[in-house]
Amino acid sequence: MAEAGAAQYVPPDADLGKLREASRDCHGCDLYRHATQTIFGEGPASAEIVMVGEQPGDREDREGHPFVGPAGGLLDRALAEAGIDRERVYLTNTVKHFKFEERGKRRIHKQPGRTEIVACAPWFEAELRAVQPRLIVCLGSVAAKAILGSSFRVTAHRGQLVDAPDPPGHAVIATVHPASVLRATDRAAAYAEFVADLKKVRAALT
Ligand code: URA
Ligand code: SF4
Q1: pLDDT (average), residues 138-152
Q2: Which residues contact 20 (CB under 8 A, 6 or more apart)?
């Protein structure tokens, strides 16, 4: 059984460079079979904030970097507007391979399931150990539920500072996923609320 989770592929006490390299060979769940490559987190080891999304999308899968597609562009703008320096942020995903369904020539994003989320968690835990951020920011409910438990509701608690049970001692703020802002009917309002949450992130660090 090659697909018994990522733990066996994670080198102990490794820095980000070594972790990234090792993550390329991860067969911890089935997703590596169809995706192009592992998309590991990016950003400085000295980052004060770790932001965690859901999983790489089509563009990320092809280009090899997290948040380089439309959702990433919106996140970049919102971070700038909230006054958060990208250099203070380490950006990663809950699941590190793109999960999709093929429809003709298009690859349609599929939400990762419990099995894949649990399988991939050792990579995120290793990233946290390497970066030791002051704050974790969950972008969307997949990340929020993975970190804060399955009963956590982003809609009820967005923008609020909460304590993470696991790993303990980390302050966490959850907000919506930038892709949900792009899909919103009232995009301007959704964007303004997203920026307002990010301003709370900035305030929590000062
Ligand atoms: N959405 C995510 O959650 N992560 C990415 O890297 C890109 C889009
Ligand atoms: Fe490994 Fe995560 Fe990719 Fe699954 S999704 S193969 S656990 S890196």
Answers
A1: 96
A2: 40, 41
